[in-house]
UniProtKB/TrEMBL annotation:
<dbReference type="GO" id="GO:0030246">
    <property type="term" value="F:carbohydrate binding"/>
</dbReference>
<keyword id="KW-0732">Signal</keyword>
<dbReference type="InterPro" id="IPR029411">
    <property type="entry name" value="RG-lyase_III"/>
</dbReference>
<dbReference type="InterPro" id="IPR051850">
    <property type="entry name" value="Polysacch_Lyase_4"/>
</dbReference>
<dbReference type="Pfam" id="PF14686">
    <property type="entry name" value="fn3_3"/>
</dbReference>
<dbReference type="InterPro" id="IPR029413">
    <property type="entry name" value="RG-lyase_II"/>
</dbReference>
<dbReference type="Pfam" id="PF14683">
    <property type="entry name" value="CBM-like"/>
</dbReference>
<feature type="domain" description="Rhamnogalacturonan lyase">
    <location>
        <begin position="88"/>
        <end position="159"/>
    </location>
</feature>
<dbReference type="InterPro" id="IPR008979">
    <property type="entry name" value="Galactose-bd-like_sf"/>
</dbReference>
<dbReference type="InterPro" id="IPR013784">
    <property type="entry name" value="Carb-bd-like_fold"/>
</dbReference>
<protein>
    <recommendedName>
        <fullName>Rhamnogalacturonan endolyase</fullName>
    </recommendedName>
</protein>
<feature type="domain" description="Rhamnogalacturonan lyase">
    <location>
        <begin position="173"/>
        <end position="361"/>
    </location>
</feature>
């Protein structure tokens, strides 16, 4: 957060609820305690916002507003351009800003909800003020923003009707890697070191990434050469390491890594191809992209130095979202075998890493 000279700032954090429970029986005590806590959680959610705070800055329920609507997606290369539902979309109100700016805001309040299976959503208990509506949809590349400012007044109910998201798209998909869900969880997360296992996560495959020291497994899986992924035969759940980390070559000495994506084009179309590149996390990294020439100067694309979320060091699977759309001139591609080089040259620490969310190559329209 950054405050200018003389800028006033005030924000309510809380109330904070702490729940302590106990059980007399030893058998299955953890499950009994957990189930009881989940039940209490649902009760507290139904009571929110609480009616007991006396602070004049805590807005009671009867002075808050509500927004309702439906989110649909239209992509001319998904189901022939027909509308599809914004299934399980994350939809929220935050301070007015650019597309995706909600992720880096901290001064204002945010109010979020999830759409149902047909895209219907309700955002409740919104503090009065001016907002933009933002959204992102698991399985769909990019961010949505409703371009009209929404003003919430005490007790209001705003019905937005159907909103249409047209995600970034320049042409048909040639190939794709991963799932656009802002997480690297679908990629290969290696087994933990036996002496470092956190037993809390044993038997919970969705939490494998929470184990300590997984980044060091990269050297063992790729001892001599960096990761190479062939889109025709490779499986991203098995062959794409969950994070592009530096290679350790000595005590506190590291080497840049350069991953390769290999693909075949039966012919090259005139016009520009597009590389959709979404990062789930970046920590003081610079992703440099080259096509068919690992030493091209200048590179075909570079993110510049980005990221400070430390997701690898914190045993996370995502941080801030970084979506990029890279124009690829057809003259850098060739008929037959092609290679994309993904290099991360910043290697002062082992945690200067990138987690990929999703990569897609689009060809020009016919």
């Amino acid at each position: 957060m950054r405050l200018h000279e003389g800028e006033p700032f005030k924000k309510v954090y809380g109330p904070v609820f702490a729940y302590l429970n106990s059980v007399s029986r030893v058998h299955d005590s953890e499950q009994v305690l957990w189930s009881d806590a989940v039940l209490q959680l649902s009760e507290e959610i139904n009571r929110w916002p609480y009616d007991f705070p006396k602070s004049e800055d805590f807005v009671p329920a009867n002075e808050r507003g509500r927004v309702e609507g439906r989110l649909l997606v239209q992509d001319r290369h998904i189901k022939g351009g027909k509308f599809v539902y914004g299934h399980n979309a994350y939809i929220g109100l935050a301070l007015p800003g650019d597309v995706g700016s909600w992720e880096r805001q901290s001064k204002g309040y945010q109010f979020w909800s999830r759409a149902d299976k047909v895209g219907n959503f309700t955002i409740e208990n919104i503090v009065p003020g001016d907002y933009n509506l933002y959204a992102w949809i698991p399985g769909i590349f990019g961010d949505y923003k409703y371009n009209t400012t929404i003003t919430i007044t005490p007790g209001c109910i705003i019905q937005l009707g159907s909103l249409i998201y047209n995600p970034p798209r320049n042409g048909p998909t040639v190939w794709e890697i991963g799932i656009p869900d802002r997480s690297a969880a679908e990629f290969h997360v290696p087994n933990p070191y036996p002496n470092l296992i956190n037993r809390l996560y044993i038997g919970k495959p969705l939490h494998n990434f929470r184990q300590y020291g997984l980044w060091n497994r990269y050297n063992e899986l790729y001892p001599n050469e960096d990761l190479t992924y062939n889109v025709d035969v490779s499986d991203y759940s098995r062959d794409w390491f969950y994070a592009q980390v530096p290679r350790k070559i000595g005590n506190n000495t590291f080497q840049p890594t350069a991953w390769e994506i290999k693909f075949h084009l039966p012919f090259v179309m005139r016009g520009n191809y597009t590389l959709r590149l979404a990062l789930a996390s970046a920590t003081r990294s610079n992703l440099v992209v080259r096509f068919n020439n690992p030493v091209a100067r200048p590179p075909h694309f570079s993110t510049g130095l980005i990221g400070q979320d430390n997701a690898v060091a914190r045993h996370g699977i995502h941080g801030l979202y970084w979506p990029y759309s890279v124009e690829v001139r057809s003259n850098v591609l060739v008929e037959g075998a092609n290679t994309i080089y993904l290099r991360q040259p910043k290697v002062i620490s082992p945690f200067q890493a990138i987690m990929y969310d999703y990569i897609r190559l689009e060809r020009p329209e016919a």
